[in-house]
Automatic annotation (TrEMBL):
It is found in: Membrane. SUPFAM superfamilies: Thioredoxin-like (SSF52833). This is Vitamin K epoxide reductase domain-containing protein. Keywords: Disulfide bond, Membrane, Oxidoreductase, Quinone, Redox-active center, Transmembrane, Transmembrane helix. One of its GO terms (cellular component) is membrane. The chain crosses the membrane at residues 60-82, 103-126, 132-151, 163-181. It comes from Porphyra umbilicalis. Pfam families: VKOR. Signal peptide: none annotated. Residues 10-151 form the Vitamin K epoxide reductase domain.
């Protein structure tokens, strides 16, 4: 009959939507676990990412927004996947398909609208990119487009518009409440995540050589490669190395010095007056302090004698 034909035609789209929603569950679960048990700076490459995960807009009523994401993606995955648990030729499959389609349109519209709110925050308030946010927004948009337009979960265009509009209005109302309830206050300076690794003997010897040569590492608290570089040395060894925080909102920021030095990116090492951008392994750094590796970057106007 017509209901069976409609359910069968929507089946491939339903499978794809289920997979997308499960991907969303995985991403938001990872972000929630990072916020709860680690530090966002360990996985972020931009300040925007850190602000989204730990700034004033990262939670509502003490609950991380990423946890709301887990619940939303999980609910959509349940709606999309529930009919798949029944044989595709059974009456149960047809009943479940018909029951879940309108709810999928409603929920996907709400998720897409809320993602638009978060992207607006990112662009207007935080003013810094966030790869995890863009990925999640893309997934939400794909869920809505796949459900409402490509799959035509609700064949009647008017009903689709009403369901989608209701979901979007609900998300907009929630977004407004969350935005207005977020305390507007100056964010305290952000410190880099703590180093958790134990220094090996080779790292200690190298750190001593770097200290003797007056080496400096320029970085930013939100820079994941900077954190990985520190972890490579270990806590005790890196304590001997001069570290300069370049992020303006970082703890003990020396951003003016970073501009003066024309630091090209993070991390960047300054050894004997030459700059070496990028995360390096200990062997490369050892070659630099031994004079076996020439510098790869010279700030404009740097004297050649200082970069031998």
């Amino acid at each position: 009959d017509e209901a069976f034909a409609r359910a069968t035609a929507f089946l491939p789209v339903r499978r794809v939507l289920t997979a997308l929603a499960l991907f969303g569950v995985g991403e938001t679960t990872f972000l929630t676990a990072t916020k709860a048990f680690s530090t966002p700076a360990a996985i972020c490459g931009t300040r925007g990412c850190v602000d989204v995960l730990s700034g004033p807009y990262s939670s509502f009523l003490g609950i991380p927004l990423s946890l709301f994401g887990v619940l939303s993606y999980g609910a959509f995955a349940a709606l999309a996947g529930w009919p798949l648990a029944a044989p595709p030729t059974s009456p149960a499959f047809v009943r479940r398909d018909a029951a879940t389609r309108p709810l999928m349109v409603l929920l996907s519209a709400a998720m897409a609208a809320f993602s638009a709110y978060l992207l607006t925050l990112l662009a207007v308030v935080i003013r810094s990119p966030c790869a995890y946010c863009l990925t999640s927004a893309g997934v939400c948009a794909a869920l809505f487009l796949g459900t409402a337009l490509i799959g035509r979960a609700v064949p009647d265009a008017g009903a689709t518009a009403r369901l989608g509009g209701a979901g979007a209005v609900a998300a907009a109302a929630l977004s407004g409440v969350m935005f207005l309830s977020t305390p507007v206050q100056a964010r305290p300076p952000s410190a880099p995540p703590p180093i958790t690794t134990v220094s090996e003997r080779g790292a200690m010897r190298l750190a001593k050589r770097l200290e003797e040569q007056g080496a400096t590492m320029f970085g930013a608290y939100w820079c994941s490669h900077c954190y990985a570089q520190k972890q490579l040395f270990g806590e005790e060894a890196f304590a001997r190395i001069r570290y300069v925080e370049c992020a303006k909102d970082g703890a003990q920021s020396q951003s003016s010095l970073c501009r003066e030095k024309k630091v090209p990116g993070y991390p960047t090492w300054e050894i004997n007056g030459a700059l070496y951008p990028g995360e390096m392994d200990l062997a490369d750094l050892q070659n630099i302090v031994d004079g076996k590796k020439p510098p790869t970057y010279f700030p404009e106007g740097a004297p050649a004698a200082a970069t031998k």
